[in-house]
């Protein structure tokens, strides 16, 4: 049973989240203020932290910065009524692993928690490099060699997933689940379309292929192939 810490000052919201998450099988504790949440976060290990952006006593982003500065790498999901792009970037820069704008559907929050809990330990890294390819997940940019890559958000997410697993063959079903959050494998060429577009952006004239198809299985990022 995964152990979650919820830091939320609105009692009505907290009660709703506690009921839903506990109903899904999680063990969830609640802190209602920033200082209380910070103390609870440091007192014992957690599998994930869900915290509001605006908290009394210590705001959520300051709390996150303090935890990250102390070496705490617990996955954290930031909740906020401030949903514009600049606010999401601030949340990620402060150390958040994901950002969910209010109001939200409870099922989406649960899906995001599931995704955080599935992530390998190295996902704290936000600047990824494989060979001459690099992406900055905070800035949302990519480069290969000396040239910039014009990546759409879904392409960046797809490339991130592959770059965290260089040389590993990834099935279509796994890509649908991890990149598109589908819990089934649709009869669609969606992955082929996105990978085809991504390949064209990654492989300029004279550059070696990076994404390779493995017949009957899936795909792999293999820069030295």
UniProtKB/TrEMBL annotation:
Response regulatory domain residues: 3-117
SUPFAM superfamilies per the UniProt record, alphabetical: CheY-like
Domain OmpR/PhoB-type, first and last residues per copy: 125-223
Keywords carried by this UniProt record: DNA-binding, Phosphoprotein
4-aspartylphosphate modifications at: 52
DNA-binding residues: 125-223
Any matching Pfam family: Trans_reg_C
PROSITE patterns listed in its UniProt record: OMPR_PHOB, RESPONSE_REGULATORY
PANTHER family xref list: REGULATOR OF RPOS, TWO-COMPONENT RESPONSE REGULATOR
Entry protein name: Transcriptional regulator
Natural source organism: Methylobacterium indicum
Lineage, opening ranks: Bacteria, Pseudomonadati, Pseudomonadota, Alphaproteobacteria, Hyphomicrobiales
